[in-house]
Amino acid sequence: MHIRLNSIIIVFVCFYLFAADRSFAQPVWSPAVRSEREMQWMKDSLHLTKLQVEKITPISLDYQRNMDKAAQPDYATRGKRQHPLMRQKDAEMKAILTKKQFDKYYRRELLIRQSENDKHYEGDRQPY
User: Can you tell me the distance from the alpha carbon of 30 to that of 49, in angstroms, rounded to the nearest whole number?
Assistant: First the structure.
């Protein structure tokens, strides 16, 4: 009886620890939500003009959708598919933003990209 009770307690403790670990996992946000949050950050932090917002919004949404597609088949090689998308987005942003705006945008992008390459990163993208 004593051994059986200990076994049950161990099972519950293991389950609790596993559940607690998973509760900190971040949700995977849809491309539309990530794009919307990115645009909100850009509006607030970069003080975009209305024309800039109109030009950047579709770029951001397409980028987020394409990043999801590039990540799907094989996580091991996703970087090879995603890096060209990142470079393309950066080039498009550079053509639309002022130098000061682009510098601030690019510093933030580098921080986001570095956090995704962190050894604790498990594939879920951070919302902006």
Answer: 26
